[in-house]
Amino acid sequence: MRLWGIALIIDAHAHIWYPPSFSLEEFLKWAAKLGIDKLCVSKLPSLRPSSFSSFSEANKDVAEAMKAHPETVLGYCYVNPAYEEKAVREFRKCLEEYGMLGLKLYTDCHCLDPRVSPLIELAVEFNAPILIHTAHIQRRYIKGDPPTVSNSEDVAELARRHPKATIIMAHIGGGGDWEWALKAVRGVSNLMVDTSGSGVDLGMIEMAVREVGAERIV
Q1: Strand arrangement, sheet containing 130-132
Q2: pLDDT value of position 175
Q3: Are strands 38-42 and 73-78 parallel, antiparallel or unpaired?
């Protein structure tokens, strides 16, 4: 169902989870009710740091969802960069065999960990975006999170180091200091911002447009 004329409505950051609490069919039914035409999804293993078997199985589940709903579901590959060459091979498999659109990184490794770089290079080769879970809070204020959590400045630095990559900084609507986060990334042209999250404050979207430009917002 199209709510806004002929424009496609795409959810750029969604997840599929584990039954019995999660049903893909119910999930897609609610997406349709909201007028969402396509969803870019990944599946995160329940334990971290994630094992190779857990993230490869999660990617198979995403591939099955893509196969079952090819008009609606687009998939992100999820890997733990600590597995180095095995992680790179899994990402390549997801791109070449499963037809996934890009890479999802969470908190298994800090985004500036050298083990992340080969994955970024492969993404550049395939013109695939990299979606990175991001804490929108200055490092000195981060309490209790593992050192592998990347903040907005870290993701901006990653994008500067890899200017040919398309980096997506996740969920400015997910809590934290989104004003600081937007200022941290405004001059980094290959870094995009996604607005997902459950804490979308008044003025957040407007500031994002002012600071980074509408063309860099998903």
Answers
A1: 10-15, 38-42, 73-78, 102-105, 130-132, 167-169, 191-193
A2: 83
A3: parallel
pLDDT at 57 over 80: yes
List the structure tokens of 190. Answer: 């290959």
CA 51 to chain centre: 19
Q: Is the peptide bond before 49 cis (omega within 30 degrees of 0)?
A: yes
Which amino acid belongs to residue 142?
I
Predicted confidence (pLDDT) per residue in 104-147, tens digit:
999 999 999 999 999 999 999 999 999 999 999 887 776 666 78
| Nearest partner of 78 among 127, 46, 42, judged by Cα | 42
- How distant, in Å, are the alpha carbons of 65, 73, 158 from that of 70? 8, 6, 32
The DSSP bridge partners found for residue 78 are: 104
Question: What's the pTM value of the predicted model, to 2 decimals?
Answer: 0.93
Give, in degrees to the nearest 5, the angle at Cα 82 between 79 and 83: 70
φ, ψ for residue 140, nearest 5 deg = -70, -15
DSSP 175-216: SS-HHHHHHHHTT-TTEEE---SS---TTHHHHHHHHH-GGG
Contacts of range 4-8, beta carbons closer than 8 Å, 24 or more positions apart: 4/35, 8/37, 8/38
Exposure pattern of 77-107 as b/e (b: 16+ CB <10 Å)?
Answer: bbbbbbbeeebbebbeebbeebebbbbbbbb
